[in-house]
Specification:
single chain; 90 residues; 3-stranded mixed beta sheet; binds zinc ion
Length: 90
């Protein structure tokens, strides 16, 4: 995966409404500490990687653009393309 300035922790657990999500965790001084990427534990191996790629793009766009997150926001699309290309090795 593409490195980021803020550490990223990944875990899998059962989710009811989402395939996965990304959450920024702040420290006691309200500074960004790390991200949690949580992926539904019942997804197949292939689906898990696709969700991880999607969520990693959220981390990248948040870190590089003042933590703004939106699928329609161009930086997320560029980040997703970059992560996906790295993932498939193009
Ligand atoms: Zn998303």
């Amino acid at each position: 995966m593409v490195p980021t300035k803020i550490p990223v922790k990944v875990r899998r657990r059962p989710l009811k409404a989402d395939l996965g999500y990304t959450q920024l965790v702040r420290d006691a001084n309200d500074a960004p500490s790390h991200f949690w990427i949580v992926i539904h534990s019942e997804l197949s191996h292939e689906a898990c990687w696709l969700v991880l790629t999607h969520e990693w793009a959220h981390v990248m766009s948040w870190v590089e653009h003042d933590l703004v997150c939106d699928h329609d926001y161009e930086p997320w699309g560029r980040a997703y393309a970059k992560v996906y290309q790295e993932f498939v090795g193009i």
